[in-house]
Each structure stands twice: as structure tokens, then as C-alpha cells.
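Model it.
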Amino acid sequence: MPFKDFLLIIIIILVPSWTVAYLTDKVIYVIPMLAVSTFVTAQLFQNRNKRLEEDELFMKKGKGKDDTDFEIGKDHD
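Modeled.
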């Protein structure tokens, strides 16, 4: 996992949780906020992982930006 993604996860989870803790001074509100922010983070990175896996499969099949199998203007033996 890249450091950038790790930092994003920390921000998504800790900033709302610490904000709720600071504003309310009650743990009863922090725990649900922690659960919701963890759920949101999991959903964001679940979609990102699927997209990367699909791109890798697409590239393994030989398809890329240019999906032609031949070169124009060259003689082939």
C-alpha cells in the first residue's frame, strides 16, 4: 500500500473522530463516528482495488492504449 493511501486512510478516519471527540467530550458519539468513517474508507479503497485489478487483467491480455496487432507500412515475412 502506498504511503499516500495510508495517509488518506488516517485522515478519513481520525479527523472526523477527533473532531467529534473535541466538540462533544463524549465517547458515546466518537464510537459511531469511528465506525462510519471506517466503513467509508473501506468502500473507497474497495472500488480502487477492483479498478486496478481490472486494469492489470486488461493489460495482460495485450490490450493497451493502442490495441492494434500489426504495424502499417512494414513488410512482414
